[in-house]
Every structure is written in C-alpha cells, then in structure tokens.
Write a structure and sequence with these properties.
With 119 residues, the chain is an all-beta fold. It is 0% helix and 57% strand. The chain contains no helices and eleven strands.
C-alpha cells in the first residue's frame, strides 16, 4: 500500500485547507487512518485519526477546527482544516495504523507528506 497526500499550500491565518490522501494497493478499509504533523522544532504529533467504523479522535490543539473523514470505497482520507493558525504550519502526513486506546497513533505506514504554511 502506498499513501499520497495532496492539498497543502500557503494560507492566511483564519483560512481553510482540505488535505486529501489516496491509498493504492491493498484495501485499507479494515485499518484506521490518521494525520500526523511535523512542526519545526517540535516532535511529530498525531493530529487526528479515524477508525474503520468512523470513530474519530483529535489532538486537543485542533479540536473544533479540524475534521477527519474517510471514503473507503475510494480508499481516501481527508482532513478539513478551518480557522488555521500560524502554529499549524508544518508537514502533514497521512498514515495507516491500528486503532488502539481510542486513537490511530500506532501508525505503520506513512505518506511522504504535504507542506502547510499559515502566514
């Protein structure tokens, strides 16, 4: 399975972006899908995850602003990001993993990432 992200870019504070991730290869419907981000000078963090049954979890820093969704038929995952802040700037990675303890942080497959810049 390969993951390819798209939708990153430059946006002003308060703006919105929608990230997309397409999975090719084996079916991914039985796995959770997630989004991580790497912010400069900070550890990589899990942003959001969605289980195969639609259950979701979010980092406290993005709750109420970001929404994760998935389309199993088309092997897609999305991250709708609203009310973006400069501190959201970073590289965003799509992941596949095993749902554990209410999150998809146990990722075992990563995309190459897409840059999001809020300035």
């Amino acid at each position: 399975v390969q993951l390819v992200e798209s939708g990153g870019g430059l946006v002003q504070p308060g703006g919105s972006l929608r990230l997309s991730c397409v999975a090719s290869g084996d079916t991914i419907s039985r796995y959770c899908m997630g989004w991580f981000r790497q912010i400069p000078d900070k550890e990589r963090e899990g942003v959001a995850g969605i289980e195969s049954d639609g259950s979701t979890n979010y980092a406290d820093s993005v709750k109420g602003r970001f929404t994760i969704s998935r389309d199993n038929n088309n092997q897609m995952a999305y991250l709708q990001m609203n009310s973006l802040k400069p501190e959201d700037t970073g590289v965003y990675y799509c992941t596949i993993g095993d749902w554990d303890a209410g999150s998809c942080d146990a990722a075992f497959l990563w995309g190459q990432g897409t840059q999001v810049t809020v300035s």
